[in-house]
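help with this record:
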Amino acid sequence: MLQRIKKIDGIIVIVLLLLMAVSMLSIYSVTHGRAEDGFHIQMAQYYAAGFVVFFGLSLFDYRILVRYAIYIYILGIGILVLVSLFGTVKFGARAWLEIGGFSFQPAELFKLILILALSALLVRLGRSQLRFWRDVVPLSLVGLLPFGIVILQNDMGNALSYMVILVGLLWIGRIKASHALIGLLIAGGAFGAFVYSYINYHEQTADFLSATIGREHFIKRFDPWLVPERASSDDSYQTRNARIAIGSGGLSGEGYLEGSSVQSNKIPVLYSDAIFAQIAEEFGFIGAAVLLMLFFILIHRMILFALECKDKAGPFLIIGIIAMLLYQILENIGAYIGLMPLTGITLPFISFGGTSVLINMASMGIAMSVHIYGRDVEEELPVPAMYF
């Protein structure tokens, strides 16, 4: 056990501690003296639990999780169905389960479950190159099932993360270039057609989303992004003021606790998914660049873990985790600078939220487990009792 502990990567631990410090400072800045005063203390508690999860999973052989990934996946699907039936609605999405006063988002947890399931299936397929009907289609269905469930819960942010994870793992799993090109053309064409229709036939598209399929919540997300001139002041209030805050930060920022927009409470739930606006306004471009550099170091270390891993499943797990984190970072920041739609995705390790912190710390624990155990002699996974 002591030898395993010594293998824990110190750089990862230091970066996680720095991200925790940034998170607590940022949350304190936007909550002190308000109804949410004390959230930074709660965040410290979430991080304390997160580090327990991180070190626990670091010392736990990830190959055991891979062996039972199929059963974990089935259990996860069952929990997502429970959310659809009994979940609590917050911010327009039915995405929370409340048990004894404790609230959590199963869709967040399922990102890791999906990474485990797809990685296990890719290892068991053992292809030098994926075949379309026998490999790509079944793997895609494994990702599309939770996507469909979660999109029906109005949780577009987490649903899209499943697709990003699926694409990342299909790519590293050696999908044929022709299949990848066809998929990109279909996806790009569908996306382009949607954007064109939404902009040029806004009324008809909005009617379809709201009246036909009951997704009026999506209109509030798409309008400020694609047709800001048609968006209501309420729908565009958060993103508009966030962009003002980000722009006013300049090079070095307005100073900690001195941000003119964030301290005047012009941005709703700033401590959650809009926390980047506080960092950009009070610490400026330099502060935002430092934060992105911390993310880069984290991802760079994980890539090194994948390259040194001798086990087949390890690189798949790490690529899935990297895809998950990159999507969250780019989507969160992109939404507040006008490049992406607002989906409610949190900024990893920074935004307030127990579920988000625990899942992100768990993902780093799994990556660390790959680093510790993946350099051992490769072991073949046993044939599963259930195959799908």
Q: What stands out?
A: The chain has a mean pLDDT of 89. Residues 275-308 form the longest helix (34 residues). The CA atoms of residues 306 and 362 lie 17 Å apart.
